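Form P-L/3: holo structure prediction, ligand fe (iii) ion.
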Amino acid sequence: MLDLHVHTTFSDGQYTPEEIVNLAVQAGIDTLSITDHDSIAGLPSGKAAADKAGITFINGIEISCQGNRELHLLGYNFDFNEPVLAATCMKFARLREERAHRIIDFLLEKGVKISIDDVGEAAHGSAIIGRPHFAQVLLKHGYVATIREAFDKYLAVADFDKIERPKPTAEEGISLIKNAGGIPVLAHPSLLKLKPEAEEEFIKQLVGLGLMGMECIYSLHSHEQVEHYCSLAEKYNLIVTGGSDFHGEKIKPEIKLGVFFK
Ligand code: AMP
Ligand code: ZN
Ligand code: FE
Ligand code: FE
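OUTPUT (holo model):
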């Protein structure tokens, strides 16, 4: 069994790479990729733990791109010492840090008072500060009752866009991964929420930019969606990948490691 889409404490996941490897072994996973948001920092310890546990480890990353909030590119099997990718990840972390301060002010305007230290604590020292860290602080301080409510009320509202961080274009994301010797894959295509015609047109465009795979098998996809995306992958000669997008029960309670299909 495999799971090629998992987050750790190096971005907004609940578990360290070592803990993820242990959980993967318990779940019967023999091929694992750690795909933190905009970060490769968890790969060395994940690889070391996977080697020790005797499971196959694939270097991974999930890069957020501009255009659609859910336009995420997965990159696989690249060299994590490649300098351009490493330097760009450092830049991503800095841009997220700057956005974190804007989010604090944004929340304050809405009557929510939290500090950057609260967020740092929720992020457990991760250089990648994500909205789920803010959601946890809002939950802890009683501003919301669930993580979902934190997004619906504060973190995924229309005017959040004005404080967003700069993101690479899809073209830049694809090049970044390919330049490091990796395979660029479109993550969770259904989350783009495009109508069938626009969706196919968009996938075609990405293929033109060098996209090599699509995450057709995803924990939130129905059987019909899996079939739909697999047939598109076949049509455009894309590699089919599968991943859960596990973050830990505290962050995404509906997603389990190594479990696909709704
Ligand atoms: P960021 O990288 O800061 O934009 O945050 C992205 C993370 O937030 C990803 O793990 C998303 O799956 C998660 N996320 C985005 N929208 C929602 C939502 N409405 N409810 C729960 N999690 C979400
Ligand atoms: Zn995440
Ligand atoms: Fe994603
Ligand atoms: Fe993800």
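COMMENT: The chain has two domains: 2-86+169-243, 88-163.
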